[in-house]
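Sharing in case it's useful to others searching the archive later.

Someone asked me privately for the predicted structure of Exocyst complex component, so I'm posting the question and my answer publicly. Question first, with the sequence:
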Amino acid sequence: MRRKDPSLASPPLSNGVSATVSHSTVVGTTSDHSLDRQDFVTLSTAISNGDDLGPFVRRAFTSGRPDSILQHLRLFSRSKESEIEELCKAHYSDFIRAVDDLRSLLCDVDDLKTSLSDTNRLLLSAGVPLLTSLDSFLYAKSLSNNLTLALNSARRCVKLLTICARANYYLGNNNLYLALRAVDEIDQEVVKDAEGVPLPALRRMLVQYIPAIRGYAEKKISKEFSDWMVQVRAASRHLGQVAISRASVQRQRDEELNSSRSGAESLYSLDADSDPDDIAAAAACAPDAASTAGFDLTPLYRAHHIHTTLGLEDRFKKYYFENRKLQLTSDYQVSSMTPFLESHQTFFAQIAGFFIIEDRILRTGGGLVSRADVDSLWDAAVAKMVAVLEDQFSRMQTASHLLLIKDYVGLLGITLRRYGYAVGPLMDVLAKHRDKYHDLLLADCKRQVSEALAADKCEQMIMKKEYEYSMNVLAFQIQTSDIIPAFPYVAPFSSTVPDLCRIVRSFIEDSVSFLSHGGTIEIFPTVKKYLERLLVEVIDASILHLVNTGGLNWSQAMHVASNMAVMERACEFFYLHAAQLSGVRRPGHTSGRRDFPLKRSRDASEVVLLKLLCNKINDFVDNSADAINWMADDVVNGSVNGIELGNEYANEVYIYLDTLLETAKHILPAPVLRRVFYGVLCHVSDQVIGLFLSDSVKRFNINAVMGIDADLRQFEEFADGLVPLFTDNPDELSAGEDPRSALIEARQMVNLLMSSNPENFLNPVIRERSYNKLDYKKVVSISEKFRDSSDRLFGTFSTRRGEKANPSKRKGLESLIKRLKDIS
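And my answer, the predicted structure tokens:
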């Protein structure tokens, strides 16, 4: 700004507004410029307020009057200059005074600058030695710091290289866990620290090789684990076989220890608290080193530990479970090229070994597998085994094959039950096929029984040695005496009896064996049910068929009847044997009185024997009946060995019966002998009655009756000779058991014909006492044929032993015939 002299300044205005107003008044005097005055006021107001002048400029140019706004701006500027001049005039003295102060300050600054320069020069001259010393100190300190850093770096590198060397040593010795620990130490303490490795090349090398080492460890341990997975599969089969074999041995030991004091339901159960240590036993008898390696779970635990160290535990658990699941699925496959009977042991042993190993891993694997995982695998295995058993059992048609598989499945159940696995579904499958097994067993026994009966020659069995007697008689408790007989011993039965006993005993043992290993059923009632089916449906039916075919002679029929008597004793042994094998504590309670299962065949054999003997007697009677003189003039006389002889047929029958008795008493037991000969004598009595009733006999006299009486006495003598064979005390025989009672009808008829008072037959008391077996019609028919020698009905009677006929007897018979006809 240019300074102005105050004296030259124009007189000050009173104020800007007044000047403006004065100027405006001058301008406003012209009417042509009234609009410019208004614009000037507006523009001045805008400038005073600091508003934007753009609209004013735009309007001026739009209206074509830009000079007007320029003029207004010049006028406004001139109006403000006066104010500026007034302000400058008011502060001029202060400004001059400030300039003078500034000038004096500049002088003081120059003095100060000179003083500072002198002081600086003195300071520099004094501080040069100190600066030299300071530079030396700083250099030494920098050198010390560099050396310290170098030493620290060297120490870090030495430590790092030492760890690397240790890791290499562990890797060289295949100690992957310690190697990984060393690598983790490098990774955690050195590599992750930005200042940890002072050498970039070493850091880059470590960063590159640490993942490689971990990958190498994972790859190597995975290979070892894969090798172990291959080995453990082969080892599982051997382990399962050993475990099941040990269960079988233990079961046999339990059978020996508990056979006399515990039931079969409690047999075959190992102590659940004992450690079977099947793995150690299997490893001890492994056939080769590869199988032994499979029992060592160290590779598995090592792989689990290494993967845990690598932070891959969950992935390894999943990998292990999936691979074991695949192995188990592969074990399920049943080869269609090999019969299941040959491969079932391998099939079940493989599965047993698999779950024994899984149980060990569950207990010692540190959480490698969970109980839920093992249970899921077991449920799948049980479902598959059940399906396989159902399919295979449905195809089997041989009882022994089914029993072999069932027995092995039972041992499998015993083995795995010790390890806590639920084997109920397997036992249910076995129980489900119980009936089929016994049906097959019965069919097999039926074939054996048929072969035994067909091979029987119906001859008494001869035993030359004591072991034969023990094997064929004592073994089945069919002996009649506890005294060992002299050898050679002729048994009262044929070879069929011990053959049938062996078949039944084998059936009982097979049935108990099948029922003893599955479920909680009561064994003895079940075995008894199937035993009765064998005896009734197979043996009894087969013998009954043999007897009813009609191809037996009397000797064969006698041996069959004798065999049935022995089989009756054998049946008691069968029930007792079944009870003992079933574990019934008091077998004596099982042998109460029961119906003989072979009763039908026994009765049929005795009926056939009796029929054959009666047919033979019929032949004798038919062949000799014509020789009887029914109107003899004298009584037949004669005796042999003190026995009075009668008619020829009687002599032949007597000789036949006597010969038959000599043979039968060595074959038939007393009860059968009694029943057979009692029936024979009854038939003899019927034949005697039949002789009187025969159409060929038109009449007979007292001499013929006395001849028949002699025949009866001969037969009665024979009957009396049977009594000692039936009992040691004849007085103990009841009326129905006395052999003489079989001839009672013929005897009563002869007595009536020979009675002096035949009309007593009409007396109820006498008839009940002496003639209770006689039939009215038979008495009438026979009495009507009774004649004397003059051919008159009871006219005269021949003498008997020098006695004359009694006329009253004739009248009595006539009265008897008349009365009986009336009654009829």
